[in-house]
Amino acid sequence: MKHTKIKHGVSLAVIFFLLIGSLALAFGLPKLAKDSPLANAQVQVEISKEPKDGEYAFGDIFVMPSCTFNQNGKSAQGLGSLQFPDGSEYKDSETTLNQSGEYTLKYIAELDGKKYTKEYPFTVSGKLATYGSSKTTVEYGKCTAFGAASTGLTLRIANGDAVTFAHVFNMTEMTMATKIVEGFVLPDVQGKADFARMVFTFTDIEDPSVQLTYFGNFHDDSNAYGLTFFTAAGNGQVQCGLEYAGKLHKGATLGCLVPHSFMAMDTGLYYGAAKPTPAKPDDKLFCISYDDASKQAWAGGKIISDLDDSYYYDKLWFGFPSGKAKLTVSGANYNNATANICLTIFAIVISWSMPLPMEGN
Fold it and tell me: Which domains, from first to last, does the chain contain?
């Protein structure tokens, strides 16, 4: 994303202006410091969304909130800028947070000929994702294997390892139409499944005992090579998935049918071919969604299960206490050294158009 950078050049005129400004500040130019009760009493500041520590992760898109200064029945819109940890400053309406450290959101406004400022500092963590094995890799780029033509984040997850993203999802904003994650499995050898299960676990950021897990299951049947069976479960629940109305699979690897292949193959029974045929791995993408209002898990635009409905589960699950969660991606039932997944959509707000620090623990 191209930034509109605020230049910090130095000249005699600028130095003179700064000296005059310093004297003005010393003798009463109103500055609305964050911790100044007197200034806050004079002018009230309303911001549409105040940034908080831990709310943003490296790589997130920061959308400039609106800010209004009010005094004696008069109001003025604050002109915003975002100062990066390295001191550079930008005034874009949307900015990629591509540095780790402390940011400062600044606003300035003028009321009755006087200038007022307000600042909101917040900290951004420095890793997109963490993992434990030296054999696990996370790489951004264009995937062209077996004819694919998708750009995204390719995870190669070693057996027994997992990738946990720093991004915090606001789960209260999710609906059945929200593609939280979209992507495809990328086999090392076309026609062979490197692993038999994708696992996506959302963990509450305040109470890690509360989790929601999606399972994307490979079924070793030539008539189902082009399908992935999705099940889901909250903590304390037995996974299940609805194949169609009246056909619920409990505690099994069968479930909600989503056109997507672990092997880069189309299949006979469901696609009208006489036998499984090679296909581009990104021909058919999986996606997972969560509807917070109904507490439903979805995949590929179909309902997997209703987490607070006794038709699906003996123990009901009522959502994330904090309303926010982090995502961990892993694999299971390996037939190869790594489970390879390319994510083409992740968290919606992530921008891939930058170098990303992708480190292990």
Answer: 12-124 (2.60.40), 129-346 (2.60.120)
